[in-house]
Design a protein that fits this description.
GO molecular function: peptidyl-prolyl cis-trans isomerase activity
Strand content: 15-25%
Distance between the termini: 49 Å
Low-confidence stretches: 33-80
Function: PPIases accelerate the folding of proteins. It catalyzes the cis-trans isomerization of proline imidic peptide bonds in oligopeptides.
CATH class of the domain at 83-275: Mainly Beta
Number of helices: 5
Mean pLDDT: 82
Structural class: alpha+beta
Pfam family, one: Pro_isomerase
Order of helices and strands: HHHEEHEEEEEEEEHEE
CATH architecture of the domain at 83-275: Beta Barrel
Keywords: Isomerase
Protein name: Peptidyl-prolyl cis-trans isomerase
């Protein structure tokens, strides 16, 4: 007999998977439309077409941008509401616009210990990285952190119903950005993911709903969240970092529906990865 709790988790998983599917459909539509526009611009001005193609992820009118920003990017909140902001002002600087064509060469040592610190406007989030079981992911984060890719980027999504995560890692701040390359899924059979639940304190990769589509976006789980094991878990958040996440979560999100931009101004001022 299915309990109320099991039914709630099942509904939450189904909702999240539907959102992932809508996002992928919206992205395919946007890519097709952008390809047609870019081709037309090329006839008029080849240089202009090149510039347009480099920004194709954000091409289109405002309506299309909102559709393209579904999870792992966000559905754009239709009626945002203000809430108290417990965080400080961001450090001076602009988000990165760097892009790469391929995954960086492997440099991490799978037998070594790695840690990441996210210095945010809301406090420092300390994370122990799992290089042994997610080497490609940790290697990518080490590379991107050294390149300053995460610096000055907003954490663009907070969920407060069904699943409980803060999503970050997109310099665009829309949920549509990434580093230009994809990394493989890893560690999906982690024994901690029991009963299709990502436990509080997990950091995992976001994706488009399809295998092997991780880029730079990730989510921080501040409360046990029912999700299918399709998102690479690659580390655990420390006790101090969990306190910061609770402060962010307590401030709520802007849509009022449990899935929107955080009311807190969560900006990663600096991300660092260190080996010990």
């Amino acid at each position: 007999m299915v309990t109320n709790e099991q039914r709630r988790r099942q509904l939450a998983r189904e909702k999240f998977e539907r959102q992932q599917q809508r996002r992928e459909a919206a992205r395919r539509k946007a890519r097709r439309r952008n390809a047609v526009i870019a081709a037309g611009v090329a006839v008029v001005l080849a240089a202009g077409a090149t510039a347009y193609a480099t920004g194709a992820l954000t091409g289109g009118d405002k309506k299309e941008k909102a559709a393209d920003a579904a999870p792992d990017g966000l559905p754009t909140p239709s009626a945002p509401s203000k809430g108290p902001d417990p965080c400080a002002k961001p450090a001076p600087g602009s988000p990165s616009d760097k892009q790469w064509k391929s995954e960086p060469a492997m440099t991490v040592d799978k037998s070594a210990s790695y840690a990441m610190e996210l210095k945010t406007t809301c406090g420092a989030i300390d994370i122990k990285l799992d290089a042994a079981n997610a080497p490609h992911t940790v290697n990518s984060f080490d590379f991107l952190a050294k390149e300053g890719f995460f610096d000055h980027s907003k954490c663009h999504r907070l969920t407060t119903a069904g699943i409980f995560v803060l999503q970050c890692g997109d310099p665009k701040g829309t949920g549509t950005g990434g580093p230009g390359y994809k990394i493989p899924d890893e560690n999906l059979k982690d024994e901690r993911l029991k009963g299709n639940v990502y436990p509080a304190g997990t950091i995992a990769m976001a994706n488009t709903g399809q295998p092997g589509t991780g880029g730079s976006q990730f989510f921080l789980v501040y409360q046990d969240s029912p999700l299918p094991p399709t998102y690479t878990p690659f580390g655990t958040i420390g006790a101090d970092g969990m306190k910061v996440l609770k402060k962010i979560a307590d401030a709520g999100e802007q849509s009022g529906a449990g899935d929107g931009a955080p009311n807190a101004t969560v900006v990663i001022d600096k991300a660092t990865v260190t080996r010990s």
